[in-house]
Amino acid sequence: MEITLDKHSANQASIKIKLTEADYQPKVDAKLKDYARKANIRGFRPGKAPISMVKNMYGTSVLVEEINEILGESLNKYLKEQTFRVLGDPLPVENVEEKIDWKNQKDFDFEYKIGFIENFELPLDKKIKATKYAIKVDDKLVNETIENLTSQYGNSTNPETSEEGDNIYGDLKVAEGDFTKTLSLPLSKLSKKLAKKFIGLGKDAVVEFDAKDVKKGEWEEAFDFSEDEMQFANGAFTFTVKNINRTEEAKMDQEFFDKIFGPDQVKSEEEFVAKVKDTLQSNYDKESKVFTEEELKKVLVEKANLDLPEDFLKEWLLKANEGKVTQEDVDKEFPIYARQLIWSLVSNELARANEIKAEHEDVIAKTKEMIREQFAASGLGSQMEDSMDMFVDNYLKGEEGQNYMNMLTSVQNDKVLSFVQEKIDMKEKEISIDQFKELLEK
């Protein structure tokens, strides 16, 4: 057998494999003899059919099977011996097998395309700079949150006349055309000028206004227009009132405190405000951690400066998902795939170079943490703790074990990012909620 490598560029190459009769014939003969011993061919006692007949019946299929097996094993072994890292899977050069004369040919030539990156290193030192973000929960956010909670848990009424802050339920209709929409219109999300048109109204009242009176963003936020409905956001409109909904703010009493945080968790307004602030800060601490890590990934990916074989990977993705995606799909999603692939390469290299390992115990602990958060969000809480081991086991066995592998990768990434932050120059930066939202929009 002869295997040769031809590098076309810094990240793409072809591999040619030449097989002679001596490489495959012994295995083919052995397989045919085994067939002959087991074959049940009409007119012959079991295992007594002539080898020539068995060869005539099964010879070509056995030859193809054995050669494919030899190719797979040889190719995998050869690639493992190389210093570069193969990306995706080798792709057979098209039409090669179609030209093969399986019955008469003795020597065979096969060719594969591969994409790869050369081995790389990413030393960690204080020359690498990144930012550790800390989101500061201020009194403004606390007050807004409390206002939302008292409104959400307040008593609902249906007054006869609308006032500022009410929700007006009714039918929206374009003056010229067939477009109509029934919705609940929150006056708090309208500009003061437009909201005035809806104040002091009763059932069956009709409000007339023009699209130019609606400010940017109000169609989506107040009138709940979808992207498709935005085509109708022009000209004159009427809104016919069908009902008025008003929510009276809940009183800051023990009943309200218990609804939000559970029985006897807080017992005064001061404790309630402090608990709201602590809860918000805890939630935003998690968000700032995630954001910091995503920004750190970008820094490390840029520092690694890896050049992916884009053309090869797009071809491989299309063939690996044949029938499920189009070339347009691959082109559209490739930037996201490329970022994830580069980060995976960087994370694996940092783990290898610094002997960072994800242990089974770490996977169990992270899975428990995830499930506890899901229970807490659904209101089940600690009452499910007794069955935690069962939930963890069921989850990790899910998707034919892929959940376990995903969690193992997640644990490794956590450890790598934690290790990196100890080695590089991380500057802490405190930001407000508004500044955080601006960063997310970039």
Key descriptive features of the protein:
442 residues; alpha+beta; five-stranded antiparallel sheet; four-stranded antiparallel sheet; 13 helices; 48% helix; 19% strand; elongated
Walk me through this protein's architecture:
- This protein is α+β, with helices and mostly antiparallel strands and 442 residues long.
- The chain contains 13 helices and 11 strands.
- The strands form 3 sheets. Strands 6, 7, 8, 9 and 10 form a 5-stranded antiparallel sheet that branches.
- Helix 7 (269-304) crosses helix 9 (327-353) and helix 9 crosses helix 12 (402-423).
- It is elongated and about 100 Å long.
- The mean pLDDT is 92.
Structure in a nutshell:
Helix content is 48%, strand content 19%.
Low confidence ranges: none
Structural class: alpha+beta
Q: Distance between termini?
A: 55 Å
**Helix share bin:** 40-55%
Topology:
Elements: E1 2-7, E2 12-19, H1 21-38, H2 51-80, E3 85-92, E4 108-117, E5 129-135, H3 139-152, E6 155-157, E7 167-174, E8 180-186, H4 192-195, E9 206-210, H5 218-221, E10 236-248, H6 254-261, H7 269-304, H8 310-320, H9 327-353, H10 360-378, H11 388-397, H12 402-423, E11 425-431, H13 433-441
Parallel strand pairs: 5-11
Antiparallel strand pairs: 1-2, 2-4, 3-4, 6-10, 7-8, 7-10, 9-10
